[in-house]
Amino acid sequence: MRIGVLALQGAFIEHIRMLNNLGAEAFEIRNSLDLLEKPDGLVFPGGESTVMSKLLSDLGLFEKLRSLIISGTPVMGTCAGLILLAKNVEGGVPSIATMDITAVRNAYGRQLGSFETVAPFADAGNIPMTFIRAPVISNLGKNVRVLAEVDGKIVAVREENQLALSFHPELGQDTTVHTYFLNMVSGTI
Amino acid sequence: MTENRSKLNKELAQMLKGGVIMDVTSPAQAKIAEDAGACAVMALERIPADIRAAGGVSRMSDPQMIKGIQKAVSIPVMAKVRIGHFVEAQILEAIDIDYIDESEVLSPADDLNHIDKTKFNVPFVCGARDLGEALRRVAEGATMIRTKGEAGTGDIVQAVHHMRTMNGEIRRIVSLREDELYVAAKNLQVPLNLLQFVHENGKLPVVNFAAGGIATPADAALMMQLGAEGVFVGSGIFKSGNPAKRADAIVKAVTNYNNPVMLAKLSEDLGEAMVGINADEISILMAERGK
Questions:
Q1: Residues 6+ away with beta carbon under 8 Å from B56
Q2: pTM for this entry
């Protein structure tokens, strides 16, 4: 399995390390040449969504990634990566817009509002979740399933081949979410 | 600061990696920086080149000015306090700043002590010239490090020197036997546990950016190739002929720092670079402040 990790800015190395630990091959996507060989899955990491959105557009990656996702390539977006997937973004960051959700940016405020918690994810039971200047999800389309909620706010969703999370599963040691994503890539869930 | 808060603050710095943090002095400049792809802005009344030119005492910026910048952009907003001035830090924490830079660019408020950053919930970044300074700042609670370089000069030589020194020392610590770390910690004047972390992991316990003298896309890519995890650009952008274009080019140079073909394109037709001052010809070395 070869997973392409968007490496324009942010915490992409953490995702690559996590994927490698689970036995998947991962490579960095920095410009359109990196997509000549089709990846089996895509990861959009945490970072600043405004930065990634601008670079996606200037480096000619928006359309290429959108068509990969529409043609069924499994994708996981975490935090800023969730914003890149959302069809609607409150605060108006241009996105790849393949997932039928609204992302509310900086929903918990500035850094002093960042927090850690433990909550159930899908049917895997409780997992640790780290929220850093995190977004939340609202206005779900009819094919979007909720995988996790914290304090009544939706923080993880899936729509067919797309997985989006408000929190950062790439930080820390828990591999539940990456294992779930790799199962999506191999087609078992 | 609880252990949990310190971890979250280190993790925010992880999210800034691969990005460019730009000095801005107004909401309008902050917007230009955000639109150009800055991953955070540093709000201050005067950029380092002007602080250097004006002389005198330079202090924390007016909170009202910082709040104006917080309203103008959605990316993290940082601001500077004087070395050792913990009340300026309390004030910035009270206005919900995202990161505080305890900075040698301002006039030091304490000639011996840095701020006890473990007493705060808000994160701190500090400058360092070598591994000893970096680990002392981490021991005091800093959750992000940057090279000091020599701010406001547009001269990259000091930032290069500091990054090479730090990474050279890290390589040396990795090569030591475990039983040699005690005396190494004594010589570097740093806590043993932090040195043990460096020995085991081959890196600082926090994210390390480059700062001080970056003026061109090539400067930014040089620092990234030397091991910086991101860059701060102070005077280099808004002291240049075409700030928006230069900011945009430096952001792309940091993302594609290993791609000379792209770097060549990004370096074209950027207009006037900031007027440089040779770091050997200046009377005040900001990097000498706070060891």
A1: none
A2: 0.96
